[in-house]
Write a structure and sequence with these properties.
Layout lengths: L3 E3 L4 E2 L1 H8 L3 E5 L3 H7 L8 E4 L9 E2 L2 E4 L12 E5 L4 H10 L5 E4 L3 H9 L2 H12 L6 E6 L4 H11 L5 E7 L5 H13 L7 E5 L9 H13 L2 E5 L5 H8 L9 E4 L11 H8 L4 E3 L3 H11 L6 E3 L4 H4 L14 E5 L9 H8 L7 E6 L6 H15 L3 E4 L5 H9 L3 E4 L7 H9 L3 E4 L16 E2 L8 H5 L4 H18 L3 H4 L4
Parallel strand pairs: 3-4, 3-7, 4-6, 7-8, 9-10, 9-12, 10-11, 12-13, 13-14, 14-15, 16-17, 16-19, 17-18, 19-20, 20-21
Antiparallel strand pairs: 1-2, 1-8, 5-6
Helix pairs in contact: 4-7, 6-7, 9-10, 13-14
């Protein structure tokens, strides 16, 4: 028996759902063996359709069903359809159903949802929990993690590389409480609750940072007694930064600001951050050139220790991809997000001459960017490639993203800054062919025989030259050498959390 909720997060019994499914055509959203087996207990397969948001699943046969893309919804009568899904991203499902005007849909209810709602959405309970954790004792490491889609990845890296029971994890939110992100954090906790129960949520909007003086004293004491204080993702709440700035200078040597990508480039109120950043003792990022740019914006302390031989950005999301793809169609990945630092339109224009070839253009637009830009990118891509443009709007799990990259042959990254390195690194590790812009300086950190191509090369290549990959095998070997060397020479997660 499975448990379900509707679009209003109301409980729906198994019997009621079974009754609803017999009245309309059923769309199974997300290729899932479990839900297909469940649904076909009640229905004939001819009354069911499977739709998956992964564009590379389109046309494949899964559990006896032909998998359709999200675009297939346009061919259905929304009033005669009921959708059912086991996808855990509730906000994504609700937004999708709104866009395609399907009002009747049901989502599998996970056991952690009730606990998530009661623990995280009730502010008084949140404050009580924060105070309780602060009184529990000392921690070797205090990790401040900015809200966002990658918070779970950071916690998973801590679990993988360290003893998480020695960590106090403080997740701080700048604006509104993000249900999906917090739900994912809570689910991760449930999977590892035998290891840790030390996650604090500080949210400016709900003022749960307004701890009493006793709780603040315990937080300061915890920071004082810790061996390292780590600020992940660079960004920090102004209120939290102001509070910490009053005393953190005395802990300067053990403070680490971890910068994975361009998260600090879009901040316009850099003066508000200078007070806090000037107290940081160590800044960890990928190269000196990037630090020079950030220093011009934020004016770090002159004595700051800049660590540029970092492998954290690569290690935090290293994706292990299957060696073989499932079809012969050339799949080209353009960018990794909807960030405007990626010139999607330039990539489309360069690839336009191949539009009649057996090729898909895959475009992840699931985070960063604004709706206006996203719509412009989609319109441009559709105009050139039609249905060969495969747009991804859902933020994929690491497992699903790994599966997506396993189907990709080529990555095209017209970047105006250093970004997207986890994806690029994973593709190089998987032997994929990579096209980068010449301004991208990530390649500067490699002292290995790794070959990437310039995006501008596409303009002079024919299709055969564009797709041939004679460097994949060597790149894979060189990446393995790099990973072996990095354990000794690079600043890795294990070194960050070393107490020696």
């Amino acid at each position: 028996m499975m448990s379900w909720i509707n679009h209003e997060l109301e409980d729906v019994t198994d019997e009621r759902l079974a009754g609803m499914l017999t009245k309309k055509q059923v769309v199974i959203l997300g290729a899932s063996t479990r839900v297909i087996a469940y649904i076909t207990k009640y229905l004939d397969k001819n009354n069911c359709i499977v739709i998956d948001s992964n564009p590379l699943m389109e046309g494949k046969v899964f559990e006896g069903f032909i998998v359709h893309s999200i675009n297939y919804f346009s061919e259905l009568d929304s009033a005669e359809v009921v959708a059912i899904s086991v996808i855990k991203n509730y906000s994504y499902i609700m937004q999708l159903m709104k866009e395609i005007q399907i009002k009747e849909f049901y989502i599998q209810k996970y056991n952690s949802l009730n606990k998530y709602k009661s623990e995280f959405l009730k502010n008084d309970e949140l404050i009580r929990k924060n105070k309780e954790i602060l009184h529990t004792g000392n921690f070797d490491f205090v990790d401040f993690i900015y809200d966002g889609k990658f918070v779970v990845n950071v916690i998973e890296a801590i679990i993988r590389e360290s003893d998480i029971s020695k960590h106090l994890i403080i997740i701080h939110y700048l604006n509104e409480l993000n249900p999906d992100d917090l739900y994912n954090v809570w689910e991760l906790y449930e999977q590892n609750q035998n290891k840790y129960n030390n996650v604090i949520i500080l949210n400016d909007m709900y003022h749960s940072f307004d701890l009493d003086d006793n709780a603040k004293y315990h937080l300061i004491t915890t920071l004082k007694n810790s061996k390292r204080i780590i600020f992940h993702s660079g960004v920090i709440s102004i209120r939290l930064g102001d509070f910490l700035s009053e005393f953190i200078n005395e802990f300067r040597e053990k403070t680490y600001l971890i910068i994975h990508g361009g998260e600090l480039l879009w901040k316009t109120s850099s003066n508000e951050y200078h007070k806090f950043f000037s107290k940081i003792g160590n800044v960890v990022l990928n190269n000196q050139k990037y630090f020079t740019i950030l220093n011009s914006l934020y004016n770090f302390n002159e004595g700051v220790n800049v660590i540029t031989n970092s492998s954290l950005a690569y290690d935090s999301g290293i994706i292990v991809m299957p060696n073989e793809k499932s079809n012969k169609t050339l799949n080209v990945l353009v960018g990794y997000s909807a960030a405007k630092d990626i010139d999607h339109k330039l990539a489309f224009e360069l690839l336009e001459k191949f539009k009649d070839e057996d090729m898909n253009v895959i475009c992840p637009l699931s985070y960063m960017g604004d709706e206006t830009y996203i719509n412009e990118v989609i319109a441009k891509g559709r105009d050139i490639f039609g249905e060969k443009l495969k747009v991804i709007r859902e933020f994929l799990t690491l497992e699903d993203y790994s599966r997506l990259l396993s189907e990709v042959d080529i990555g095209v990254f017209p970047l105006s800054r250093n970004c997207g390195w986890t994806t690029i690194f994973a593709m190089l590790k998987g032997g994929k062919k990579i096209y980068l812009t010449s301004v991208n300086s990530y390649r500067e950190i490699f002292k290995y025989n790794i070959t990437v191509f310039n995006v501008s090369d596409i303009s002079v290549y024919d299709f055969q030259k564009f797709k041939e990959n004679k460097v994949g095998g060597v790149n894979k070997e060189e990446i393995e050498k790099y990973l072996k060397d990095s354990k000794q020479n690079m600043f890795s997660w294990s070194k960050l959390y070393s107490t020696n």
